Amino acid sequence: MAQGQFALIAWTTLATAVGGVLGYLLRQSIAKSRAGTLEAKLQKKVQQTKEEVAELIKNSEAKASEIIDRAQKDIDQRRREFLKTEEVLLEREKLLGEKISNFDKKESDLQTNTEKLKVMQEGVEKLRSESETKLEKVANLSREDAKKELLSLVETNSQRDILERMRKLEETGRETLQRRASDIVAMAIQKCAVPHTQELSTTTVAIPSEDIKGRIIGKEGRNIKAFEKLTGVELILDESPDSVVISCFNPVRRHIAKLALEKLIQDGRIQPAKIEEKVDEATVEISKIIKDAGEKALYDLTILGVNEKLVQILGRLYFRTSYGQNVLLHSIEVALIAETIAEELKANAPVAKRAALFHDIGKALDQQIQGSHIEIGIKILEKFGESEAVVHAMRSHHGDYPHDSLEAVIVTVADAISGSRPGARKDTLENYLQRLKSLEDIANRFEGVEKTYAIQAGREIRVFVKADMVDDLGAAKMARQIASNIEEELKYPGEIKVTVIRENRVVEFAR
């Protein structure tokens, strides 16, 4: 019995051991199988990654090669442009060197002639001394008598020769200085290449069809009336079938009207509410145009450190004319000329250029502020932190103030050069625009006037009054008074129509 139990225990132990060994071997087999599968997957993934990396490298190399080719072409183009510019500069430098050499030679000749004159004067002194000694010995004359005789002799023999030589020296010096001045002015004008365009008092806008022209007029003319009231311009529709002419002496109003009309034509919906919306948009856009014009002028002239509000005021000159000349373009031209002259004369070129650019800045606000454009300009520059040197150089360009510095003289000369060149200015146009402005000024004096527009080439003035300040009877009375004032203060051919418009608009919202 005991042997049987022992055998059972032995077999049980053996079976357990064999089972454990078999289980271990089975687990090892399963683990190896799984490890092999995972390794295969990893190798496949690694291979895919290598292929993707190779593709990326290939694409990157192609793109890099393309970028390098483009960069090399750009470098070659810039190198050619640089070499071309360098050749032009070298040629100009050569010409300038020749002019300076000629000037130095003439200056040397003048110095030589001066030295010769000095030698002659020393010879005269020596001759006088010798003659005095001889006269004292031979004629037994007193020193005073000998002196008088000697002076008379010297004057008789040498005066004509000395005067002739002095005259030649003066003429040579004058001619040299005149040529030098001409060279400086010519160089300044050559370096100045500001394009000038002159607009009169009309602008043309193309229209695609006669149907659009009918929409612009509107039912019973309500659209064109609303447009003219809001913009202060006159629309002329019968001059050409494919265009509309905008007539107004004020360039800002004319440009706002042009932008608004183009927006309306593009939109296609033309009615009073839409007209008012587009005019408001154009007014905002014109402010950006004014700022861009000021910033472009400063960028072109490389002038830094200008107050933002002063930039805006400068840009307003783009829509200001003087004797038919665009004031902003004129100011840029004066700045370029002043800079060149200042460099030639060894003056302060940055101050001269800055003062020249701002010399007419007062004209941007002379319709809103009382006083001459010079006085207004001085206040503007001082308010926005311009230096005293710039203000002094600017204020004397019309002779109202003394020229306190060389830069002030340069600004005056540059302004005269720009304004006096052929075709720069037209007095007739300026007088015409001034007459239209005078018409509006007369109407603006009356209390209750909201805005005034001179149209029809000055043959009509439209006055818009505030409905809460002027009643119908007051509007009629105002029209008679304006007409009477025009008759007393202005001289004009024919007659001028005075139209006073009173509109009472009430707006309510249904909620």
Automatic annotation (TrEMBL):
State the compartments where it is located: Cell membrane
Q: Which Enzyme Commission numbers does its entry carry?
A: 3.1.-.-
**Family annotation (PROSITE patterns):** HD, KH_TYPE_1
A Pfam family this protein belongs to? RNase_Y_N
Asked if Heme is a keyword of the record, the answer is: no
Ranges in coiled-coil conformation: 39-66
- Keywords linked to the UniProt accession: Cell membrane, Coiled coil, Endonuclease, Hydrolase, Membrane, Nuclease, RNA-binding, Transmembrane, Transmembrane helix
HD domain ranges (all copies): 327-420
Q: Which domain of life is it from?
A: Bacteria
One MF term in the entry's GO annotations: RNA binding
CDD domains per UniProt = HDc, KH-I_RNaseY
Keyword ATP-binding assigned to the entry: answer is: no
In the bilayer, the protein is annotated as: Single-pass membrane protein
Q: Which GO terms describe its biological process?
A: mRNA catabolic process
Q: Which residues cross the membrane?
A: 6-26
An example of a Gene Ontology cellular component annotation for this protein is: plasma membrane
**Function of the molecule:** Endoribonuclease that initiates mRNA decay.
Q: Which family does it belong to?
A: Belongs to the RNase Y family.
What name does the UniProt record give this protein? Ribonuclease Y
Species name: Candidatus Staskawiczbacteria bacterium RIFCSPHIGHO2_02_FULL_34_9
